[in-house]
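Re: the multi-chain job from yesterday

Posting the exact lines I submitted so nobody has to dig through the queue logs.
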Amino acid sequence: MILLDRVTKTYSKALGPALNRISIHVEPKEFVIVVGQSGAGKTTLLRLLTREERPTSGKIIVGGIDYDKLRDKEIPMLRRKIGVVFQDFKLLPNRNVFENVAFALELVGASSREIKNTVPRVLEIVNLKGKEKNMPLELSGGERQRVAIARAIVRQPKILIADEPTGNLDPKHAWDVIKVLEKINRYGTTVLLTTHNVEIVNKLKRRVITLKAGRVISDRANANYHL
Amino acid sequence: MKHKIITFFRILHNGTVNFLRNISIAVAAIAVMVVTLTIVLLSIVVNATFGNTINQITSKIDISVYLKNNVSTSQTKTLINQLQHLNNVQSVQYLNKEQVLRQYETQNASNHQLALAISESSNPLPATIHIKPLDLNKISNIKSFLDTPSVATLQSNPPSYSGSLQTAINNIAHATDVLRKLGIISIIVFAFISALIIFNTMQMAIFNRRDEIQIMRLLGASTNYIRGPFIVESSIYGALSAILSVIIINSIFVTASSTLQATTLGLLDINYATSYFDSHFWLFMVLQVIIGVAIGSISAGIATRRYLKFKVQN
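And the result, structure tokens for all chains:
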């Protein structure tokens, strides 16, 4: 589902590579956690997967799409196929909860009827029923993150990338978000989660890839957090 | 196809919503566009009115060639034929001595003494050829033809070129020409200024919504899906400005014709201008909307192009 083959990303030669010849292979329907301290390369890895950045060298294939052959004008299409959840939520500030989730469907040309049918069901999955009319600023951090998740999954992507989605949340809300991600994974979506929350990693007992200084230093199934 | 239609209507909807949300920013852009479009429309109406005034004057003017009494019918026919083939000749009308007399009598019907002074038996009036030129400013070829010795010998008197009226017509033509050029220059200048202001307004709107645009990008919105609403928004500025400008001009003419005692203002025939505007009202409305929407959408298109370039960091 996701393949990175000897991928290197260097922003400046003086700083050295942010990612250094990393190779990762994620199977369909897997739940993979990428851990590492700040500056380990987690966010760079996700930015490469969403094509916000190009690798300096190496090959990336996601959902059968070879990024080497991807033209700039095809990037929007790629992003519509991947669900992304950001640490800072990235909700559209002038749209309410319903409209934020609906926006993802608007981009793929869904009809108004489809949107009216689908959005409430997804909001129910993330436990936000009744909050449809609220604006993002009227929600707690956990609720905002669940709106972002709803937006990411409403198109039923095969891959969901979550970049430290619990980073700005208190433990209770963090667990709410993780439970939603697990639920989505059970429905068959491949989840790639980055975090440095030890408790979450240890409780989930999933495959853990550990990054340090831009390198993969361990890749274990049912693993705990250790650096 | 269905997807494209849905997307098109969404872009229209989003553009309209953005317009309503950013109405305070829109006011400046609309104000400048109203000025531009008002000048454009006024120039068109004023030009048409001046054109009509000149036409009215020039249609009454022709070149009269007075023939000697001994000119034969065949000589007259030849001369008429030659005149008809000259450049810049619209029409040639021949009046024989009797017809000229009838015309004289009709013109002086109210003055019995003048009518009596000239009788058919002692008709001193010469047969006359009236030449109507296409353009009064370019009659030199007709003049030189009439001055050629062979033609000059047929004439009893020098031809009449409408005398001092010609100078007046030249002055009017020159003045309207200058006004027309000024009109075109002011249209270009104001169109440029309003395009610039809309351009800046759009850049400001994009700058304010740059985070939103970035989010849309990350979610997979295409450039056109992001740009479309901006273009719709500024097209609404253009259309609204066009309607306002037509209303303003309409009010000016209604006020002018009801408050001014005179029917003209200098060279400007207000009555004609009002009726010309009224009879072309919907044409002007459509034309103004097209110009307004074009200025708005083109400037928004350029402004967003600069900000919406796809950048993938290497």
